[in-house]
Amino acid sequence: MARRKYVVGNWKMNGLTGALAEAQAIFAAAADHPGVDVAICPPFTLIGPMVAAAPGGAVGGQDCHSAASGAFTGAVAAPMLADIGARVVIVGHSERREGCGESDADVRAKAEAGLAAGLAVILCVGEPRAVRESGGAIEFVLSQIAGSVPDDFDPLRLAIAYEPIWAIGTGLVPTVADVAAMHGAIRGALAARFGDAAEEMRILYGGSVNGDNAAELLGARDVDGALVGGASLTAAKFVPIVAAAA
Ligand code: PEP
């Protein structure tokens, strides 16, 4: 089945209101590629302003709490994201799994919260360098998939992002063959658990994607798009990646 390509920018903790012009330029250019779904996930502070500045653009959060409300100082709930116009949320990014100690169970609960709030969810998985070097990358990632993917969801609203931790922000990228092997293994695990629905789910690659390597990575089997960090911060760097997906 033909899956629409999906290119998502993760701005991480970058961007003041002056950066909204970049988002406007990105969404304007993305309109030239109607076959590609494009989203930008800015810091929480820019979600509302970005929705207002780029009406029609898919804007998302980079995390959400698993509870809908409560005494969780500093946290943001999925219904709050939806309430200000977000349509997407990233969960399980390695900077949260490793930096904030989030477990597979935590990530699964956050994914369930995002889905319950009506958001599209991008659920991240990926192995550290030592695991890749020991030959255990596929086993490691499939364990994350088993532990963090919810049981019940619309396959068009839950995407997996495979992001090898050692490739994030480093300029290092796995071989296309290794990316295809991992994405095929993820698709196989999803098919074993969810049947035909796995064919509808999008599996994104993330980790040092740029305008020069995007076409090759996005052309690999079972690669349905990209989750992009550094190269998503400006239209000049991000739009070529969107074009490569078209
Ligand atoms: C990311 O953090 O999701 C990411 C892919 O970052 P970069 O593109 O900068 O490697």
Q: Termini separation (Å)?
A: 17 Å
CATH topology value: TIM Barrel
Count of individual helical segments? 11
Q: Pairing-aware structural class of the strands and helices? A: alpha/beta
Order of strands in the sheet with the most strands? 1-2-3-4-5-6-7-8
CATH architecture: Alpha-Beta Barrel
Order of helices and strands: EHEHEHEHHEHHEHHEHEH
For the largest beta-sheet, the strand count, sense and barrel status come to: 8 strands, parallel, barrel
Radius of gyration: 17 Å
What ligands can be seen in this structure?
phosphoenolpyruvate
Q: Please, how many domains? A: 1
Quickly describe the structure:
The chain has a single domain, classed as Aldolase class I (TIM Barrel, Alpha-Beta Barrel). It is an alpha/beta fold and 246 residues long.
Keyword list:
single chain, 246 residues, alpha/beta, TIM Barrel, 8-stranded parallel beta barrel, 16% strand, globular, binds phosphoenolpyruvate
Can you characterise this structure?
The chain is built from eleven helices and eight strands. Helix 10 (214-218) links the parallel strand 7 and strand 8 (225-228). It is globular and about 45 Å long. The model has no long low-confidence stretch (mean pLDDT 97). The two termini are 17 Å apart. By secondary structure, the chain is of the alpha/beta class. The longest helix is centred in the C-terminal third of the chain and has 19 residues, at 176-194. It has a single domain, classed as TIM Barrel (Alpha-Beta Barrel). It has an eight-stranded parallel barrel with strand order 1-2-3-4-5-6-7-8, surrounded by six helices. 41% of the residues lie in helices and 16% in strands. Phosphoenolpyruvate binds at residues 10, 163, 168-169, 206-209, 227-231. Belongs to the triosephosphate isomerase family. Involved in the gluconeogenesis. Catalyzes stereospecifically the conversion of dihydroxyacetone phosphate (DHAP) to D-glyceraldehyde-3-phosphate (G3P). Keywords: Cytoplasm, Gluconeogenesis, Glycolysis, Isomerase. InterPro entries: Aldolase_TIM, TIM_sf, TrioseP_Isoase_bac/euk, Triosephosphate_isomerase, Triosephosphate_isomerase_AS. It is found in: Cytoplasm.
